[in-house]
Amino acid sequence: MVNEVSSIKLFRTSEHPCSYISDQNATTIFLDPATKISQKLNSALTNKG
Predict the structure, then answer these.
(1) What's the structural domain count of the chain?
(2) What residue numbers bound the domain in which 38 lies?
């Protein structure tokens, strides 16, 4: 499982205004849309936040 999580490709957006904390910036991180997400991978990612 560790190998599956460590080998996924992530993307990060440019910095943008945070939608829920005033005067703060945020970035959004998301999985490569081509990633096949198994139930085990989904659970591992959920546990990591």
Answers:
(1) 1
(2) 2-48
